[in-house]
Amino acid sequence: MTLLDHVEFAVRDAEVSRRFYEQALAPLGMTRIITVGPERTRGGGTRHGFGRDGYPRLWVQDNEQAGAGTHVAFAATERTVVDAFHDAALAAGGVDNGAPGVRAHYHDHYYAAYVLDPDGVNVEVVCQAVPA
């Protein structure tokens, strides 16, 4: 199952966001894969790429306008991963934007949690598998 190909968005402070995502995404098995320094970026900011299996699928960068309303959703195969993400993201300083639970308005098996990161980006982890 693919988490996603990649998402990239601007943040106020790449180091604050790096620390947040390293901790919040650990339950998904995601780590920081690469950091690209300001000397190698188009906007002169620092970029951090997070993913697993050596491929960065989430990029955050500073030195650009942090975007309001940005949303990213990661896929999980088990509801316990959704719960673990929510706990880890809150412990990392995230703000609850929807506790783990079924979102029946999407469908009966849409189990998701939402957290706002340090820049107000709405980060979701969802499990759409039918419970055993």
From TrEMBL:
The record's Gene3D superfamilies line, in alphabetical order, gives:
2,3-Dihydroxybiphenyl 1,2-Dioxygenase, domain 1
Name all VOC domain ranges.
3-128
Under Pfam families, the record lists:
Glyoxalase
Q: What name goes with this protein?
A: Bleomycin resistance protein
Q: What is the lineage of its organism?
A: Bacteria, Pseudomonadati, Pseudomonadota, Gammaproteobacteria, Oceanospirillales
